[in-house]
Amino acid sequence: MVEFGSLALKVARSENLPVLPQVASSVLRLADDPNASPKMMERVIEKDPAVTAKILRVANSAYYGLSNVGDIGRAIGVLGMNAVRSLVVGVVFQQMASSREHAPSYSKLEYWRHSLAVAVTSRILAKLKMPDLAEELYVAGMMHDVGMLVMDRFCPDEFDRAILFARAQQVPLNLAEKLVLGFDHCQVGAMLASKWGLTPMVARAIEFHHRPASDSESASTNAIVSLADGLAHRAGFTNNVPLTKLPDWSEALSIVGIPEAQLEVVQQVVVQEVIRAQEAFKIV
To answer: Which region, left, alpha or beta, applies to residue 171 given φ > 0 means left and ψ of -120 to 50 means alpha?
Structure first.
């Protein structure tokens, strides 16, 4: 049995942790700095040629509707710093999720598809309710299940048992994790968010996306990610545990304030958006 305290100690010591690439952490800081300039962001991104190439390819895809964007400066000029922040996070997170799994029942491809779906859905919902936060909520949606990467690395056997238990008993994975390990990916993700220095809004969404009202300070943004998570599951992006009875989303729905009837339309948009995003990121 893996103790949460021992796992927390490994996170504190950065022992073999997933590392947020320097380009991503720098871009996240710059996007939140009112004094940062587009030129500063351009210089940071261009220090990583591999990320630069991938960003330009995705930026020139049909998903972003651009063409002939030949450099990062042009991409920032057309899309804006916030949108480029989201694009950088998407690119580096895909790279982080591309390594081999340790838990036999865990598919990182399924994980990445779900993360992308929640990111896209969070942005769509935010544009309806809090448009100024749409890109930061995209980042929160992308990273909401990041604790699973740590669990797959440090406790793969227990994590595998939790996945199999969730599938067999048809319960949400976070509940199965608590039964098997005594803690869940939300708690682990919160530790990693602190280690990475993520913004408070993103960190709280990671910790509270399964119980958004538990954190009154960020309940509205937590609920956006929680509702996006539910919609992604309903759209078929289930992150390794397809459920016949989907988790209750009434709490998140009441906080966000979107009529449930409207969600069917949102879900149809989400499916199309995720298909286009997958094509842009070359997810197979």
So the answer is: beta
pLDDT for 283 beyond 70: no
Q: Domains of the chain by range and CATH?
A: 4-18+99-281 (1.10.3210.10)
A 10 A CB-CB count for 198 gives: 23
- 96-141 pLDDT tens trace: 888 889 999 999 999 999 999 999 999 999 999 999 999 999 999 9
For residue 182 the two structure tokens come to 């005594």
CA distances from 56 to 209, 232, 273 (A): 31, 27, 19
48 in Cβ contact with 23 (< 8 Å): yes
pTM for the model: 0.91
Q: In this structure, how many other beta carbons lie within 10 angstroms of the beta carbon of residue 197? A: 11
| Predicted confidence (pLDDT) per residue in 36-87, tens digit | 999 999 999 999 998 899 889 888 888 887 788 889 999 999 889 999 999 9
Half-sphere exposure of 144 toward its Cβ, with a 13 Å CA cutoff?
Answer: 35
Q: Predicted confidence band at 16 (pLDDT cuts at 50, 70, 90)?
A: low
- For residue 27, what are its two tokens? 């871009």
Give mean pLDDT, residues 8-18.
63
Checking 23-27 for CB contacts under 8 A at 24+ apart, the result is 23/47, 23/48, 23/51, 23/88, 23/92, 24/88, 24/89, 24/92, 24/93, 25/196, 25/197, 27/84, 27/85, 27/88, 27/89
